Amino acid sequence: MIQACTKTQKVEKYKRELIHHYILLMATVLFIFTIIFAFFIRDHIMPWYTAGGLFILVYSYIIVVRKKYSIHKLVHSYMILGTLYNFYVMLAFWENSVASFVWLLPIPLGAYVFFSRKYVIFYSLFVMLCILLGFLLSKNINLNFPEHRTENVRITDTLLVLSNVAVISLIIFYKDKIRRVEIEHEIEQKHDPKKESSEKAEVIDEEVFEKIKAFMEKNKPYKEPGFNISKLSAALDINSNYISKAIRQHNFTNFNSYLNTYRINYVKELMKDSNWEKVTLMYVYTEAGFSNQSTFNRVFKQIEKITPSEYIHLKIKEAS
Which letter does DSSP use for residue 146 in this model? Predict the structure, then answer.
């Protein structure tokens, strides 16, 4: 399992490096285009458009890195929004140049690195649809975009082609590194098939746990005193043995330990929001699914290391 984790970590690391270098490259390209359109090729809209794209690209990446969003969600966002962003540029230069299509070439290639085949097909069709839509709009609607001289278009086309060659080279470079890791992993699996089955089991456990977590947070079944693993098994249509194993993989002793964690967290929420002149402790623990106070006191102290009364006094003291 150590080897499997190492493989996953390496692939994740290379994907993050690819995104990081892509952002740096595209930010540089957009900055150069902003300078060109602002000072060398006079255009009232394009400098603001490229500068806006630069700002959104950098700002969104800073937020995403800080909050550690999923790589796949980030890439999906960039591919969809990037294609739509380029759509205006493509229309603006349609009569002067078709080189703006080059911006769209890395989209299916990037999907090939990050996603399964169905997404490669999806993004390929998406790009083709955008090009077709651009063609229809340019032929049937007078969009009144400013005309650009041939020598100016030659400058932007050259920069456009060079930058996209760099993007494609970057994607191919990291795809090759990721593929090397995958090949090494496949060779290791051939020598030790148990690793593969162990890795699959871990993936299944993680999927089961995510389903359990989603059900608990959405439906709050822990508020029901008689809720148990059998009822959860029936609700999710998952064998209780799989549920127990998935829960233990996340450092819970058993299902009751996991269930009581939700109940105590809910008790703490109720305590935080309760007016103690109007509600009782009995209301709080029964609302959270505990059938009697002795069980509630024991579980609360086991998890929080202090009694409910001590916890209440502590919070009142902190609030005063």
Answer: P
The domain boundary residue, chosen from 189, 221, 251: 189
Flag whether the pTM goes above 0.70: no
What angle, 0 to 180 degrees and rounded to 10, lies between the N-to-C axes of helices 2-35 and 46-67?
160
Q: Are residues 256 and 174 in the same domain?
A: no
Domain final residue pick, 169, 189, 209? 189
Q: How far apart are CA 262 and CA 246, in angstroms?
A: 16
Compute how many other C-beta atoms are within 10 angstroms of the C-beta atom of residue 2. Answer: 7
Write the CA distances from 74 to 23, 41, 70, 210, 314, integer angstroms.
12, 33, 6, 21, 42
Looking at the structure, do residues 206 and 183 belong to the same domain, yes or no?
Answer: no
The whole domain housing 309 covers 200-319
Q: Which of 49, 56, 140 is nearest to 100 (CA)?
A: 49
Span 82-126, pLDDT tens digits: 889 888 888 888 877 766 677 788 899 999 988 889 999 999 999
